[in-house]
C-alpha cells in the first residue's frame, strides 16, 4: 500500500536534524534556481508544520508560484499547487483566502488528472474533502470522497480507502444520517487497523 505517511514519520527526525541546511538550501535555490526551489518547497510543505516552518513554506510557495508561473514541469506545478492549497487550508486566514485556495486546488487537481498519477490525485481529492470547513460546500467534498474510495479500492491502497471511508462517515453525519455515518466509520476503523494506519485509526476513531 503506497502511502507517504509512514515515510514521513521515519524521515521526520532526520529532516529536523538537517532543518537549518534545508532552509539555507531553499533560500539559495530561490535566489538562483527558482524552479528547483519550487520543487523543494512543494515537498517540504508536507512536513512544514512539524519542522516549525509553516509560515516560511507558505510564503515561499506563494512567491515562487507567482515568479515561476506555468514555466515549469507540469508535475512540479501540480505538486506546488496542491501543497499551497494544503497550507492555505491550515492557515489563520483560510476563510479570507478561500477563493485563492480553491483556485489552486482546482488547477492542481486538473493537472493530477491530466498526468494520470494516482497518488497526487488521491491527495487532491483528500484536500477537496478537507476544504469543507473553509468552503462550507458539502457537494464537492462528497463527490471527492466517493471518487477517492473508488480509486483507492481499484489501486488496492487500503490506507487511503480507510480515510475516504471515514470522511464519508463524517459527511453522512453532517447530512443527518447517523446510522449510515456510524456504519462508514466502523468500516473505516477496521480497515485502518488492518492496514496499521495510525492516522486512519485516529480519523475514524474521532468520528465514531
What does this structure look like?
The longest helix has 18 residues, at 98-115. This protein is mostly helical and 208 residues long. α3 packs antiparallel against α4 and α4 crosses α5 (74-90). Helices cover 81% and strands 0% of the residues. The model is unreliable at 4-8 (pLDDT under 50).
Helices and strands in order:
Blueprint: H1 4-17, H2 19-32, H3 34-44, H4 54-68, H5 74-90, H6 98-115, H7 118-130, H8 132-135, H9 138-155, H10 158-174, H11 178-194, H12 198-207
Helix pairs in contact: 2-3, 3-4, 3-5, 4-5, 5-6, 5-7, 6-7, 7-9, 9-10, 10-11, 10-12, 11-12
Separate helix tally: 12
Largest sheet: none
Q: Shape from CA axes?
A: elongated
- Average pLDDT reading: 86
**Estimated share of beta-strand residues:** under 5%
How would you classify the helix and strand content by structural class?
mainly alpha
Oligomerization state: single chain
The level of helicity is: over 70%
Q: Could you give the distance between the termini?
A: 25 Å
Low-pLDDT parts are 4-8
Order of helices and strands: HHHHHHHHHHHH
Please compute the radius of gyration using only Cα atoms.
17 Å
Instruction: Compute the number of strand runs.
Output: 0
Care to give the gist of this entry?
The chain is an all-alpha fold. The chain has helices at 4-17, 19-32, 34-44, 54-68, 74-90, 98-115, 118-130, 132-135, 138-155, 158-174, 178-194, 198-207.
